[in-house]
């Protein structure tokens, strides 16, 4: 159970994670998507074709935080988005899946931080219960390793 400075630090991190969960900003996501489209463009894409491709990707990820989209694109470039073929651009749905995975890490951290903040101290275990637990563990160890 956190106290004092720990509680303040955890509350600040929760606030930061809550802000990070908000979709956008769109401009940052479009910059990342533009890098992706530009890098994997085969032949000469016209500006209009590149814009259409970026818009299709944007529709796939427009409800996700831009930092997660940016990280998903970076992971794709580094070949760190799971067992995939990195010789080609991901489909919009695949990029969405990778970005959701990135965002879910922060969401999971927020859940854990809130649990820590809401933790209540447990009652002390009575001596007789503790002794019974120790005896049970010893018995299990003996049965397992004989």
Give a written overview of the molecule.
By secondary structure, the protein is mostly helical. It is built from six helices and no strands. The protein has helices at residues 4-20, 26-40, 47-61, 66-78, 92-117, 127-144. Helix 2 (26-40) runs parallel beside helix 4 (66-78). The longest helix is centred in the last third of the chain and has 26 residues, at 92-117. It is elongated and about 80 Å long. The mean pLDDT is 91.
Q: Could you give a quick summary of the protein structure above?
A:
The chain is mainly α and 146 residues long. The protein has one domain. The protein has helices spanning 4-20, 26-40, 47-61, 66-78, 92-117, 127-144.
Secondary-structure map:
Blueprint: H1 4-20, H2 26-40, H3 47-61, H4 66-78, H5 92-117, H6 127-144
Helix pairs in contact: 1-5, 2-3, 2-4, 3-5, 4-5
């Amino acid at each position: 159970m956190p106290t004092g400075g720990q509680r303040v630090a955890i509350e600040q991190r929760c606030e930061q994670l809550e802000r990070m969960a908000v979709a956008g900003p769109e401009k940052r996501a479009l910059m990342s998507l533009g890098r992706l489209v530009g890098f994997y463009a085969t032949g000469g894409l016209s500006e209009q074709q590149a814009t259409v491709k970026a818009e299709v990707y944007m529709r796939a990820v427009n409800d996700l935080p831009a930092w997660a989209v940016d990280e998903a694109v970076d992971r794709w470039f580094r070949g760190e988005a799971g067992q995939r073929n990195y010789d080609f651009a991901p489909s919009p749905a695949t990029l969405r899946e990778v970005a959701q995975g990135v965002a879910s890490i922060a969401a999971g951290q927020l859940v854990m931080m809130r649990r820590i903040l809401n933790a209540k101290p447990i009652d002390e275990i009575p001596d007789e219960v503790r002794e019974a637990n120790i005896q049970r563990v010893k018995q299990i160890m003996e049965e397992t390793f004989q």
